[in-house]
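Field: sequence (string)
Field: structure_tokens (string)

Example rows 1 and 2, in order.
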Amino acid sequence: MKTFILVIFCINIVAFDNTEWNNIIYFSNNKPEIISPEFYLSRKKQFTSVIELNATLSLLNSKKYGNSTACNYPLRYTFLKSQYFNIPTYNLENCKELKEFTDNFKNNELYLAYSSEYISVPSSAFGHIMLVFKNKDVPFEIAKTIHFAAVTNKEDGFFTYNYKGLTGGYKGYYVLNYFFKKLYEYNTKEQRNIYLYKLNFSDEQTKKIIYSLYELRKATFKYYFFNKNCASYTTKLLNIPKNKLYKQKNFYLPIDTLQQYKKNIIDKKVFLSLIYKIEYLYNTLSTNDKKNLKKLFDIIQQLMTI
């Protein structure tokens, strides 16, 4: 009987989609990219993606821990279930914390958001990229954004900041924000344009990303300016539902993410920075209106000096 189960298990392994599994658990070159141990279910110091698979299957089949494992790792559970592993069926609708999280992403359209460069910060010298989940029934400003960012120390000087950024000295996380906060940060404070590109991801594909983000709330990474940054980890997140291999590069820029998914772009939108909006409005004025506006500014300046 044990031999028979082993044979069936081996057959499942042969049919198993290793690329998608490695994407889900953030394995690259058969090594884990996530440095926080609570993200992984294997308790071995040195482990492979297959060992992590076995640990996950063992917990999902456990009477004591099976349901909580499925609730905490919904993407792994639904993926392994789809691969015809003989694991119990769990109702994810009954997972309270998971449901509270997914309720933030209702009726979504998925966008790639590219913020133009900001030369004052080396890590943003080539721009910044984010994902925007917009409920079709609400304005863009209260859409949810997900972006990958480093937690830096404000007290670090120029050389320390750059050294840590180049050598993985900072920790990186996926961060959830409202879009209006990013608009204020980029459009108003830093005077950067934000370009939005709507993606043709299906509801099921978007759901996989959301499930992955729920699992990644347990995840800490090492952040590198050049190739393990907002662009590379946004690409990795998008690769999960598309089941794409991640192509390693010495320099991974936001434009690389846009290039990889340009065939999935079906619509575009732009939020111009405040200074561009003012310039645009000023150029629409008549010559007389421009003169009157200048007079108004002169009067305001005089009043401010009193």
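Row 2 begins here:
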Amino acid sequence: MCDARVFPETIIGPEAILEDGCVIGCPPKYGETVPARLGREAHVRSHTVIYAGTIIGDHFFCGHHVTIRENCRIGQDVSVGTGSVLEHSVELEDGVRLHSSVYVPEFTVLRAGCWIGPRACFTNAKYPTFSGSKDHLAGVEVGPGAIVGANATILPGVKIGERAFVGAGAVVTHDVPPGVVVVGNPARALRPVQHISY
């Protein structure tokens, strides 16, 4: 380990690499949490902060300046790109890939093997400044193997189906069926994924 701060009771798996300036197990401002846990062979880049209450599986990799808040559940073989933010109570299943500067708010669920492009933004508050908004947050769910392109914006409560493809810059206001390509603002169905040619 280098010049990283690891809070007491934090569990760090064998062969983990923590670069300079990391903070692991930071206690949240409110509420009780279990200690943070980081699986084996993790590689946490410099100036990343992982809060207490977050459980991360084996072979985790992240870029620099990542923030992962409390009570997140992150599976095996997950990567999170530089500058990304995961708010509290987020779930990332096995094999999820987040590129740089992705924003993932509370109660979002990213299912196994989905791929999220740079600067994608998920939202969870339909009326963010209204009284009681925090009591009615609705996270996004991205299905297994789905792709969300760069700079896409996904509105609260939207479900993106298994192996669906959200085009770069799309603004997704409604659920996306499995295996469908959607593009535009607001996003509209373009064609089935299997009709994409490379």
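free_text_note (row 2): The radius of gyration is 17 Å.
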